Structure formats: structure tokens, C-alpha cells
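Bumping with the actual sequence this time:
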Amino acid sequence: KKSSNSTLQLRGRQLSLQSLRCFGSRLFNPLYTQRHKIMDDDNEQTYVKLVSAEGTEIFLEKRIALQVDTMRAMLEGNFRESEESVIRFPDISDSALEKVVRYLHYKDRHAISTARIPEFPIEPEEALELLVAASFLNC
């Protein structure tokens, strides 16, 4: 439920559109197909498999996933996700999960930047779904 130009009312919580800064992109495509292996070697990156509501699988570097409070709790706690390195998001669509992953790469890339950080584009029609995802992920 929209309450003003800069905030949204969601499940009784007032969320600002500023929360949407929790999403982004990277110069290269951060999305991976099922052909990529999840390795835990010293020479290979460790990946976490994220599964959307529609069943699409996206692989994300574990070090980036650990920067998100909800994912860190799932991966470091006594949960099935920590054993399998698979996190299922039954309420997050393909497009929203892809945008979340793009933002996490964007955020990681610009984390220590001293230069002006470019805007992360979010279309108005994506805003509500991304606010829901940001609220759930606590990022």
C-alpha cells in the first residue's frame, strides 16, 4: 500500500524507497547456469545456489551471500541451507532474485570506492517486489 511518494506501507511497516538501494548490477553477468560446479577448493570460488519461486537457479559467490544478514544466518546456522549451500526463496520471483544478485555484486564492487558511486537503476514497476525482497533479506 503506497503511503507517499517516498515510502510504502507493507505488512504494517513503513518502508522507504531508500531501502531499494539494497539491489544492483555489475559490468559482467553475475548469473551462472547449472553447468557451473559449486567447488570448495583453495583454487576455486565457493558458490551458493539461490532458487527462486519459479525454480530458477542462480549461483552467487558465498563471500557475497554472507554479506546479507538473512543469507548469513541460513548459511552459518544449524539449517539445511548450511549443509547443502542451497537457499530457496519461495516468495521471490526470478526477476526480483536476479535484481537482488545484481545489486549484491554492485554493492560488493563499490564497497571500498572513494569515487562517486553510480546510481543503481530500478524501474518503478519493480519497486514494490524489490522492497518485499529487501525487507525479507534484511539488506
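The C-alpha cells above came from a reply further down the thread. The helical segments are 62-65, 69-76, 80-84, 94-110, 127-137.
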